[in-house]
Write a structure and sequence with these properties.
- The chain is mostly beta strands.
- The chain contains one helix and nine strands.
- Strands 1-5-6-9 form a four-stranded mixed β-sheet, with no helix packed on it. It has a three-stranded mixed β-sheet with strand order 3-8-7, with no helix packed on it.
- A hairpin with a 4-residue loop joins strand 5 and strand 6.
Length: 92
Amino acid sequence: TDTYSAPIYYADADTPTTTWTYSDCQNLPQLAPVIAGSLTDVPTPAGMVVSQGTDESVAIYQPSTDTYWDFWRAQQDANGNCSACWGGKIEH
């Protein structure tokens, strides 16, 4: 529970949105639509930390838009740019 469970962040309406990039850790022949549509306009909380362990999971929920994002193999570089190998977005 302290290594592979995904931290859940609540993003308020003022949380800045960013476009995440796709990191193809599965060597897929093409970008799957489910992940492609999840990477834009993600409210990314400052100081976000993904789970420890190889899953590197993170979940973000924004009540004001009633939207939930969930990412696997998520990373954030020193400049604050985020990427994920897989994930999805659920609205309403």
